Amino acid sequence: MSFQLQQLAKLITERSGLDVKVVGDGALSIEKISTIDKANSNHITFLANAKYKKHLVDCSAGAVILAESELDAWQGAALVMSNPYVGFALVAQILDDTPQQSMNIHPSAVVSESAKIAENCSIAANAVIEADAIIEQGVQIGAGCFVGQGTIVKENSRVWPNTTIYHGVDIGKNCIIHANSVIGADGFGYAPQSIDGDQHWIKIPQLGGVTIGDNTEIGSSTTIDRGAIDNTVIGQGVIIDNQIQIGHNVVIGDYTAIAAGTMIAGSTKIGRNVTIGGVCAISGHLTIVDKTFITGRSFIMKDIKEAGIYSSGMPATTNKEWRNNTARYRKLTELFDRVKKLENK
């Protein structure tokens, strides 16, 4: 698969509306996108960070995606645009060679007679589609997947192998759900009851579902619990990384991004355009406003009512410094009491 440089520019503009200027040979054939140090004459690379500008001197790429301000550092063909990183993303989409499933139902798939399956969709080997499920046009269901009763997977969404989607889940258009994820499992709902001095846990059936908006991507081995009564809701254009836990009745606003390993407890409401770093823990029943940025390893225990950057993770240091700081931290209460006494005097 190859494209002329001028074809790539035209496709970028058609997909995004962005202005792209072709510099040099517009008929140059591009077969692959590559890094600056490994590109050859049939490859296109990109410069999105000025610190890599020095590597253009030895770059063998056929063309480079870069900003107008960096054009002086490159003598060859180029696609010039205001945001080269977005240009890289769009060219990568155009040159994407991820295999597509054949549009048919594999003989080993088990499909309920009451399920509604569009003609041009794909259901791979050993998948199970339960009663009254709806699989719309262009959907790809991977090998070994389970789609529960009454669940809807809308147009052009792709579910990678061994994913489990429980009953009563609504997945929007153009979504991607990566392998081994679980959508719609029971939330962690139990009522405590004391019996003979022991605390027993009485299960609360989780009667809600999960709603996922259009153009959302969910990473592998991520779990999104169903709601206790109302639905758990994931907005449109949300990107969720691998191995994330989202509790019951969580609401995540449009275009929010969540990095790997983060845990969000039940009934928390996260706004639009929020960015959450990796390995964060967010307590339940909180509200986080739009356009908040939470850095990695943060522990959020109360509402965030004002947009900004929030952190609580402790950066790594030498073991000696960490041991000294830990010893001092243990004396913090004693030191506080001493200061209080001095203030009172």
Overall number of strands: 38
Count of discrete domains: 3
Helix and strand content put the structural class at alpha/beta
List segments where confidence is low: pLDDT < 50 over at least 5 consecutive residues.
Answer: none
Radius of gyration over all CA atoms, rounded:
26 Å
Give the helix tally: 4
Adjacency order of strands in the biggest sheet: 8-11-14-17-20-25-28-31-34-37
- How does the major sheet shape up? 10 strands, parallel
In the CATH hierarchy, the architecture of the largest domain is 3 Solenoid
* General form: flat
Q: How much is the average pLDDT?
A: 96
The name of the CATH superfamily of the largest domain reads Hexapeptide repeat proteins
Instruction: Tell me the helix content.
Output: 10-25%
EC number: 2.3.1.191
GO molecular function, one term: UDP-3-O-[(3R)-3-hydroxyacyl]-glucosamine N-acyltransferase activity
Catalytic activity: a UDP-3-O-[(3R)-3-hydroxyacyl]-alpha-D-glucosamine + a (3R)-hydroxyacyl-[ACP] = a UDP-2-N,3-O-bis[(3R)-3-hydroxyacyl]-alpha-D-glucosamine + holo-[ACP] + H(+)
Family: Belongs to the transferase hexapeptide repeat family. LpxD subfamily.
